[in-house]
Design goal:
Elements (H helix, E strand, L loop, with lengths): L11 E6 L2 E6 L10 H16 L5 E6 L10 H10 L9 H23 L5 E5 L2 E3 L1 H7 L3 E5 L3 E3 L13 H4 L6 H10 L3 E2 H7 L4 E3 L2 H16 L3 H12 L5 H15 L3 H12 L9
Parallel strand pairs: 2-3, 3-4, 4-6, 5-7, 6-9
Antiparallel strand pairs: 1-2, 7-8
Length: 280
């Protein structure tokens, strides 16, 4: 079996186990917060695994105490608080276009997971916050450990989630339930995630959920890759509108993301205090 070379990453590592590739979120000291390198590296890795004929299934898991706490606010926060995401161009249209382009590039990070021709199984443990939900909803099969905690946290940060959750979660969970967890931004545990259908199984701990994900991937990899990948392609037709919906939210946030409420949310996070939103 000839292994294809993979792009280097300082925040993601890849382990090959026969015909299964394990993509590890590998920034445990920061609870796998999604720094700029993550958004660039994950799609390149997924594209490479998708093109590798020796890989028949992919498992996504994480090192450390948490799956991920979502976007790295230490890295992105200063620009968000300063309202500097769209640059300093003299043209507001140019600034808005730059922000739109940035959002669509970040959307592609998870679209690359969803469009990987190989089945993708995710094993979640600990926190799965914000961008973590965007990531797992792009996967085909979601498993969790008993200590998993989920949250569509963007609303609490004065943001409209714009990289996949609002498009993919309603295809997994009943829409009224989606609205409730999105509008409140509240945390919910593994048992509730199982009850609502966000995950299909709950296992006792991190080691157990990763082991089961690997066992499941091995079962899939033993089947005809033509049949498995064909089934994924056919199932994917049900999600044909996702691209249009992602473009809509990118346009929305290009117009409305840089609010005073967003700047206040980031300052409150930095100062570890409750945010005081004014709606402007």
């Amino acid at each position: 079996m000839s292994e294809q070379p993979l792009p280097h990453s300082d925040v993601i590592s890849v382990e090959r186990r026969g015909r299964v590739a394990v993509v590890w979120l590998d920034r445990p000291e920061k609870l796998n917060a999604m720094a700029p390198a993550f958004w660039e590296d994950l799609p390149r890795i997924m594209d490479a695994l998708g093109a590798d004929a020796d890989v028949r299934a992919v498992v996504v898991a994480a090192h450390g105490k948490a799956f991920t706490v979502g976007i790295d606010l230490e890295a992105f926060g200063p620009e968000l608080a300063a309202g500097a995401l769209s640059g300093d161009s003299s043209s507001e249209v140019t600034d808005r276009r730059r922000l739109y382009d940035m959002i669509t590039r970040m959307q592609h990070t998870f679209t690359a997971v969803a469009e990987c021709p190989k089945p993708v199984i995710v094993a979640v443990h600990g926190y799965c916050i914000g961008g973590g939900v965007d990531l797992i909803t792009a996967c085909d099969i979601r498993l969790a450990s008993a200590d998993a905690v989920f949250s569509v946290r963007e609303t609490k940060l004065a943001m409209v989630a714009d990289v996949g959750t609002l498009q993919r979660l309603p295809t997994i969970v009943e829409p009224g339930r989606v609205a409730e967890i999105v509008y409140t931004g509240r945390d919910f545990g593994a048992d509730e995630a199982l009850e609502m259908g966000l995950v299909s199984q709950v296992h006792p701990d991190r080691d157990a959920v990763v082991k089961h994900a690997l066992d499941l991937a091995d079962q899939i990899a033993a089947n005809s890759p033509l049949a498995v990948q064909g089934a994924k392609a056919v199932l994917g037709r049900r999600r044909a509108r996702v691209g249009e919906e992602l473009d809509y939210v990118a346009l929305w946030n290009a117009a409305f993301l840089e609010s005073n409420d967003l700047a206040e949310a980031v300052r409150a996070f930095t100062e570890q205090r409750p945010a005081e939103f004014r709606g402007d």
